[in-house]
Amino acid sequence: MSFLKNHDGKFKHWYHFTAFRFLTGCRIGEACGLWWGDVKWDNECIVFRRTYNGRIKKFKPTKNETERLFPMPKNGRLWNLLKELKQGNGNECVFLSSTGRKINDDIAGRYWNNKFYKSKGITYAHSGFVRILLEQGKISKYLPPYNTRHTFVSHQIYDLGRDRDIVNSWCEHGEEVSRKHYRDTGRIAKGINPELPASNQTTLSEIEQLKNENKELKEQIKQLMDKLDKLIK
Fold first, then answer.
1. CATH 1.10.443.10: does it fit domain 1-196?
2. Quick check: helix, strand or coil at residue 156?
3. What does the alpha-carbon distance between residue 197 and residue 210 come to, in Å, rounded to a whole number?
4. In angstroms, rounded to a whole number, what is the distance separating the alpha carbons of residues 158 and 222?
5. Please, how many CA atoms are within 13 Å of residue 125, restricted to the half-sphere of its CB?
6. Which of 73, 99, 147, 204 is the most exposed place for a label (fewest CB within 10 A)?
7. In the predicted model, is pLDDT for residue 48 greater than 90?
């Protein structure tokens, strides 16, 4: 996330949208369809009640046509993330493109992955930030945009020890769907020593999290040093 947050160019705009999806595990269309009226500051929660379909340019109910609450503790990471944005009217989208348009999965996908698209007979090319991170060796393999949801589910259950029913409720899916599509159980299992109690072990996901945090700190230090060099010169 530090790559987006500290980027000097076009990718910086996508920091809040991407971070929101990692913090909530919501579907892409649900983030696109979130209105400021769905952000309940007084109740410290977010209401997911619609999705935005960019192909037909219409708002629709969520996949299972339900409304669900997602906790947003005051002064927590999610709360502070949304406070950084300019708040609009109740029926205005929280996340917009850099030109003020509604975001859909296609527009968001252009900045995630390398994409070519045509507009008024002209072909445009977008370099996605995930592809750039892959080329720079900062991630080991390409993962599609929907993996923000996978990451949220695995992190909540395996890293934080959250009850699976709670996570399923937050994400609006059942246990079978969660187990089959969203929990990276095989990868986690590889980091478990079957000869030790669970309370004495550091899982592979925890190790990777520490490595990622270390990389982010190194990157931030490098950026600060570069700025310092410029000031000295």
1. yes
2. helix
3. 21
4. 32
5. 2
6. 99
7. yes
